[in-house]
């Protein structure tokens, strides 16, 4: 096992006011563990002025390095040694859980297997209203309520107490306790001598609980408040620095609070917090979990852990009050966040995955289960439907497995590499990705097919297969384009690659390939490089694939791996022998995309290639029945009808005579198949 350490500073969207001052940003250290085939990441995030292990940078980093070296040597986190350093303990515990998930073929961010991590359920969270002036806090309060939060946590102690009472009064006048649960967090702002009087003034507002009304370390004063307060008291800062199990037991026995608010980065990591929960249950103390302003890396780990603890089959479930809202909404506080999870809010619920992706993942699981079913030896596949109605075919599982192995070998994919499935499972390209994942094997990430398959991702997979349409759309979004450039092997298929797209891909640091294949060949039977010194217009057949030209110039494929008989395609091709003596071919067009207009045969793809650099809109050429010509060449473009004169003028500069379209039509969207092929029919 090896590790790397990196540091990132996250700026807040707006200054975050606490009783200890204003926070503008926060710094986290990220530990990445690798074992050659899998990786996991954890976040070490101390809070200056609050964490006991918020040390000078050099000293803190030295401690992380020492702990990581020991972890890599032993394979275990030394929890006893790291008790005084809870943020480091939390980072290493979660990095190891993340690595273990990755080794088992799961996403590195699916630390536990729960309805939450599977994207089947959300975790209700409170809406956090940070300190500020009265108008600002009221505005923030209204924003939270408008988004559907039913539990609001208000930080108090930064304003004068009368202004804070005014805020709470205004809230309660509009939203009664039957509609909104109200929590307050004093962050130790009250003096012990005035605390009870302030608690009594807060009580009429039906406060669910108050966190840390007085500063930590005053056990006897806090114990008296817990016994007599009209508002239940929750301990937060009081738990910081209480690391030994016997000290935790003594604190709870002395103070006997109504609630605990646990923050793993402050209160002993995951293992230390589980100690707190076990001891709290012995005293019938309940509580909830919040973040300590970690980025989405740490926040995802905490949320996954909470979802595991709250499972009704776990004894820890009784720690959580029924319907309790957790404090896990802090990921929305930052201008940019950790790029690695699908955490997002829907109303008051935190979700670990998007519903569309979950549905697609279930479809993938069903397909792979069907493929692994030994009772059947064949699978049904369908042609794409780009030139006619999709046709069903029965294909041998053994042939699909052989094709999958050949493609992975040709691309040099390592076993255990991460791969992205982002195309509809009705088509052979997606089905073969699913088979490759089983056969090689690959660790497959499945996202709902769309024109922006990297939109919900923050880390690049090792291997991505997508259509040219998806690649082009991805490159229009800077963040997605940056991810695509990090892919080690990019495979494009299912449509023509435009000159513009080819130029955009030319300087990619990884390998970019174009594949040639179809349903009948079980995906790829030939490849060509699109980038680097080996970039070429010519396809090289994969091992065992033979090629020839029919008398009409169309490609004939012989491949014992995928088909017993020679396959006569509709692709017009040109062949040559390269300097190594190997046959190569390039595609010129399709016979079913040749039209006859007035006795002149026109090849649509060749004309489209000539026009593509000159037209500012996506377009297709096709034929319309014509009484005089038989077929009239027709151009359909995706753009405003008002630009028709401009489009005609541009076309006439490139195409003349019979090759110039006779008819034009503007449409809001060009007809395409789900995989991006032109739907000319």
What descriptive keywords fit this protein?
alpha/beta, seven-stranded parallel sheet, seven-stranded mixed sheet, 17 helices, 31% helix, elongated
Structure explained in plain terms:
- The protein is an alpha/beta fold and 681 residues long.
- The strands form eight sheets. Strands 5-6-7-8-9-10-11 form a seven-stranded parallel β-sheet, covered by helices on one side. A seven-stranded mixed β-sheet has the order 17-16-18-19-20-21-22. A four-stranded antiparallel β-sheet has the order 23-24-25-26.
- Helix 2 (86-103) packs across helix 8 (269-282) and helix 11 crosses helix 12 (428-439).
- The longest helix is centred in the first third of the chain and has 18 residues, at 57-74.
- The model has no long low-confidence stretch (mean pLDDT 90).
Write the layout of secondary structure elements.
Blueprint: E1 2-18, E2 21-34, E3 39-44, H1 57-74, H2 86-103, E4 123-124, E5 127-129, H3 134-146, E6 151-155, H4 161-174, E7 181-185, H5 192-202, E8 207-211, H6 219-228, E9 233-235, H7 245-255, E10 259-262, H8 269-282, E11 286-289, H9 296-309, E12 344-346, E13 349-351, H10 355-372, E14 378-382, E15 392-396, H11 397-411, E16 418-421, H12 428-439, E17 443-446, E18 463-466, H13 468-474, H14 478-485, E19 489-492, H15 499-505, E20 511-518, E21 523-529, E22 540-541, E23 546-549, E24 554-558, E25 567-577, E26 583-590, E27 594-597, E28 600-603, H16 604-611, E29 619-626, E30 630-638, H17 644-654, E31 663-667
Helix pairs in contact: 2-8, 3-4, 7-8, 10-12, 11-12
